[in-house]
Amino acid sequence: MTRWRVLLVLALGRSDCPGNDKADFEACQTDIFLGGSIRDETPQTVAPSQQPGRASAACMDWPGCAPLGLFGDCCPSNGGAMLGCCSAGRRLALLQMERKGVTIDDTTLQYCARRIPGEWPNAEAPLTSLRLFQTWNTQWPVEGRKASWQGLVDFVRTHGVKVLVGTPVTCVLADDEQTWAWTKEFLGMVGPENIMGLAIGNELELLADHADEKCIEELWEGGRLWKTFNQRVSEFDEMGFSHIPVTSVFTAAILSGNPFMDVPGKALVNTFLRQAMWKYGARYAFTFNVYPYFDPNLRMNAGSRDNCSESLKRATCWQGGGIS
């Protein structure tokens, strides 16, 4: 590690970089402070770039930086690896942060809900929304439930955060009823002003991959999902949330149908969505979990074994031709 600390100082202290190359500036987004080679247990020796002397290493002095939203000092090595790229004050361009949120993982919910960051990392932008897959799980210790909830409620109210609250639909009805009872208790603590929506079920089109046929048939052909959805919404409304959107979250796998998956014995998603739209209209929100990294067509750049910039560009594009 001592060797790397020295190299880091050398890299930051140089004034002959960055090179006037778009790739150099883009590399700043994956510098060592965000998980690069300085944390490697067996680092390789990489010398700083030996470019001709330049007047400044500040991104603001180079035409390629501003369009990429990069600030600070940037110094790529001649091999493309970052020794110390961009100062601590470096900021990427922030776009529509008020429309973005985070998902709270199970560990955070159970043990440190009070310590959720109020701002996005490396950005002077407040966190405005978050998602809970579930408010509690029947396999978790019940002793810490209310304390964890109170920590989350305090955070949400302090920062004015909106919460998308999830409640599971599974093949174990007793567990579903218990988690729904907990969900209602949590909703009562938060109040309507901090609830973005209620998500009933998550990725149910994939349940057939690991559940028995009887459960799947009962859920879809037997109408249990639709019955459960209506019961949950009715009780949700009785609590004073009748103006809050409702949804069930699916993956992009449902797009395999026309327009959505409707496969007996697997998932009748199109049937469910038609029913939901007919009954709830604009109150029903279409919600997707999008996972570009599962796309088998995403590969390394042609002729490269370590560069996937073209696939990354496609995976993060919301315009025509993208898959996000």
Automatic annotation (TrEMBL):
Signal sequence, renumbered to the chain: 1-19
Query: Does this entry carry the keyword Signal?
Result: yes
Sorted UniProt keywords: Signal
- Protein's UniProt name: Uncharacterized protein
* Domain of life according to the entry: Eukaryota
